[in-house]
Amino acid sequence: MPKYFVPTALPARVRAARLAGDDYGVTAQPNWRTVDWASHLQRTEIDGREVNYVDLGSGAREPIVFVHGLGGQWQNWLENLPRASQERRVIALDLPGFGLSPMPCDGITISGYGRTVEALCERLGLGQVDIVGNSMGGYIGAEVAIQFPQRVDQLLLVSAAGITSADLAHAPIMTLGRVATAIATHTAAQDRQLASRPKSRHIALQFVARHPSRLKADLAYEGFFKGTGKPGFNDALRASLNYDFRDRLPEIRQPTLIVWGEKDSIIPVKDANEFERLIPDSRKVVMKDTGHVAMAERPGTFNELMMEFLAERGSAAAGAPVEGESQVA
């Protein structure tokens, strides 16, 4: 049997949420609900189309650019932007075809999304930036580091696509199952009523988060449910499955932190090992009993990891934990 038929983690049962730990689903500080988000929303034109983004904070160090995943929007980072903006300027965009950004003129590709992120950085005069990307957003962040190495100072990949997804393009049965899962989540999680009920949150987001019932209802709706049903979904899914950059990952020379959920049901945790193997200056952290969106599931813990890493200078590998300490609660 081909190696890519190794199954990912099965979704947890609702009752398992009570054992998720004290930091699971707990709102990070500063509280995102206290931010006047409308005052930070901006739009700019890139390649003949408007791109929607949020822009807040300031600081002497490099700005941080956050890139969401498939079916996402800038609000995927609600729990992380306020904390990061205490020290840095932070920008989170809606990729073309998602959120409030219309479809691109030339179709959706991973390399094209990489050029969009670069163009946004250039338009805003950001200079060097740190990039934080989740899932497809990690795929795109790594692509930016490869295409435009002078743009990226440090890279943080959160359950990034690009390893198993490349194998899936050659495995029709498994691809069909993954696509069906993605579409089920994409179509089910669409209204505020679903978000208000713990069991409904669990059903709708069980492949995305490990314990969706522990997520706050307003975060589930604003951060994840509201981003579904956008025109870019199918094309971006196809682009993710059809692009293979594994042979180019060794070109990434930026210090890279790889963060993964131990129980990711979408992209297997073994992919973290492969990213770490292929990116020369990298280290990984695996978060226990966590799913595909660690930044929203354990936001306080994730924010500490993120800000500590982005404050580092020098090699990422030099800060690697000793054997047996690569997991955090």
Could you explain how this protein is built, in words?
The protein is of the alpha/beta class and 329 residues long. It has a single domain (25-328), classed as 3-Layer(aba) Sandwich (Rossmann fold). It has twelve helices and nine strands. The chain has helices at 81-85, 110-123, 136-147, 164-168, 172-188, 192-196, 198-205, 217-224, 233-242, 270-278, 294-297, 299-311, and strands spanning 41-46, 49-56, 64-67, 90-93, 129-134, 152-158, 256-261, 282-287, 327-328. Strands 1-2-4-3-5-6-7-8-9 form a nine-stranded mixed sheet, with helices on both faces. Helix 2 (110-123) packs across helix 3. The longest helix has 17 residues, at 172-188.
Ordered list of secondary-structure elements with their pairings:
Elements: E1 41-46, E2 49-56, E3 64-67, H1 81-85, E4 90-93, H2 110-123, E5 129-134, H3 136-147, E6 152-158, H4 164-168, H5 172-188, H6 192-196, H7 198-205, H8 217-224, H9 233-242, E7 256-261, H10 270-278, E8 282-287, H11 294-297, H12 299-311, E9 327-328
Parallel strand pairs: 3-4, 3-5, 5-6, 6-7, 7-8, 8-9
Antiparallel strand pairs: 1-2, 2-4
Helix pairs in contact: 2-3
Total of helices: 12
Shape: globular
The CATH class assignment is Alpha Beta
What structural class do helix, strand and pairing data support?
Answer: alpha/beta
Major β-sheet strand ordering: 1-2-4-3-5-6-7-8-9
Low-confidence stretches: 1-7
CATH-level-4 superfamily name? Alpha/Beta hydrolase fold, catalytic domain
CATH topology: Rossmann fold
Largest sheet: 9 strands, mixed
